[in-house]
C-alpha cells in the first residue's frame, strides 16, 4: 500500500497508486523531508518511484529510509537488488488489487453506501441534483460596469440558460466578457468564479474589477549613467567624455581644448551603462488626468492615449510601464522613464512669407514648464534689409497631443511692403475698377496682434486632427494708417493613410473667415484724398480656403539588412482660393507660398494651384557620407485678383540634400520656363507625410 504525505511529513490518506511528484517541507532541524531535495533532483529517474511504496507497518520509518537513500547510504548493487525485489512486490500487489477490485468491488461500494450518514447521503444527492439541474437565471453579483445588454448577450451565446452549469459554458461566458472588457479598456478585469443556488436554480457569476488606487500613476524617473571600466564608478556621459578626451590628449600631445590633434569618439552602444533613479519635472497627476485614471474608479487603460503621451516629448525614453498593486488594494500605473533637457535653443535661416527675402531665425523653447507638457518660448526673425525684427512670444499646453490642448501667441511682424507692386498695378490696370479702400495703395509697415489656438476641438473619434484658432491684429502703414482685422481659422488634418508597398499619403484642409475694419490714422490725415470719415468703420468680410495632398511612393523596397532608404517618388499639390477684400499681407503670403524653384515670385495672389514632383535617390560616398540626390519638377498657376486671368510657370532641376552637424542643408539648380538657370540654397527637411 502507498501513502501520501502531508506538509509536515505525516500520513494523511491511503491511495492505490504511488505519488511520483510531491513536495513538502519540515521545520525540524534534522533535515528530513526538506523541500530542497525536490528542487535538486526533480524525481525524474524511475529508481526513485519505489521510495514511496512501503508497507503499512513501515510508515514510521519513512523519513529516515528516504533520507538514507537520498544521501547514498547504500551501495549501487544493494540498491539495485532491493529495487528488483520492490518491483516484483509491486507487480504482485497490482495484480492482486485488480483481481479483488473486479471481484468484490461492487459489493464494497454497496456496503459503504449502507453505512453512510444521512448528512453524507444528502450531500451526495445534492451534488447529483446540481449536476443535472437546468439554470433558470444568471446574475453577476459584484460587477459595477458591465451593461445588462452585454451580460444577456454573453449568457445567450454561452448557452447557460436551460442547461446544467458546465465548465465549458462558464469559460465561454468568461471569454465573451473578457473581450468586452479589453475593448472598453478594462484590461485587468476578468471572470473569477461561478456558483449555483439549488433552491432558485440561479447561477451567480463573480468577476474581478480592480479600481484605481489613491495614487493613480507613479513615475520613477531614471538617468542613464556609465560604469567606468577602470574604477567601477558611475559617471555621466559628459564627465566620461572629458576623461577619455584628457587621456587621448595626453597620449597625442595635445596642447589644450582649442589645439587638440584629435577628438574622442564615443559610441553609446559599446559602453557599459546602467540606470539610476533621479528627480523629474513631470507630474504624475497630469499623466493620470490624461489617462482618465481617477481614484476609486475602475482601472481603464487605452493604448492610443498612452502612445500620444509617450510621443509628446515629455519622456525621452519609456523603459517600462505596467499596472501594479498598491498598498490600499487598488491598482497603480507605474512608469519608468527618462526625461529630455527642458530648454532648447534652435537657429536657422529661411525666407519670409511676407517679404520673400532671406532672414535669420533664433528660437528659444522651454518645455514642460509646470510638469504637464506646457511650453513657453520666444522667436526672433530678421531679414537682411529689415529695419526691425519680427518677434513672437508663445505659451501653450498641448495636453500631450490629446483633446483640449491650446496655445497663445503674441506677435509683431515686419511686413516690408514698399508699395512698388501696387504702383505697377496702377500703371498696368488704369482702366480697371478701383480698389475698395485706398488704404491698399499705401505701403504696409508692420502687423501686431495675438492668436489663440485650440487643438482637437472636435473629438478625435470623429476627426483625428483638428485645430481651431482666432486672431486679432492691427496693421499699420508707413503713413500711419491703421486697419483692424479679426479672423477665425479651422484646420482639419493631416489625415494620414498607409498604402500598399510601403506607400503613404496625407491630406489637410484649412478654411479662414474674417473681416477688415478700417480705423483712423495717427494724425487723422487723408491719403490721396480718399481717406474720408465715411470709410471709417466700414466692414469688409473675406474668406480663404486651401487644401494640400501629399504622397510618398517607394520605387524600390528598402534593404532591411543595411537600413538604406529606398528610392522614392514624392508628390505634393496645393490649391488655395479667396474672396475679395483679402488683406494685402495675406494675399502676398499666398503668392509667396506658391513660388516654385527657379522662377520669379508673384507677390500677390487671390487663387493659386501648385504642384511638386520629386524623385529622391539616396547616395553614399566613403568620405562624404550619406546624402540624397533629388530630381524635381515644379509648376504653378496663379490668379492675381478676381478680374485677372490665370498665368502659369514651371521649372525642372536637380538638388542635393546633406546633413552637416545636424543641420539639414539643401542646394538646388533649376531651369525655369522663363529660360533662366538659377541656383538656390536653403535649410530644412523636404516635405513628408
From TrEMBL:
Transmembrane segments: none annotated. One of its GO terms (cellular component) is membrane. Residues 417-440 are annotated as: Disordered. Gene3D superfamilies: membrane protein fhac, membrane protein fhac: a member of the omp85/tpsb transporter family. PANTHER family: BACTERIAL SURFACE ANTIGEN (D15) DOMAIN-CONTAINING PROTEIN (PTHR12815:SF42), SORTING AND ASSEMBLY MACHINERY SAMM50 PROTEIN FAMILY MEMBER (PTHR12815). This is Bacterial surface antigen (D15) domain-containing protein. The lineage of its organism: Eukaryota, Sar, Stramenopiles, Ochrophyta, Bacillariophyta.
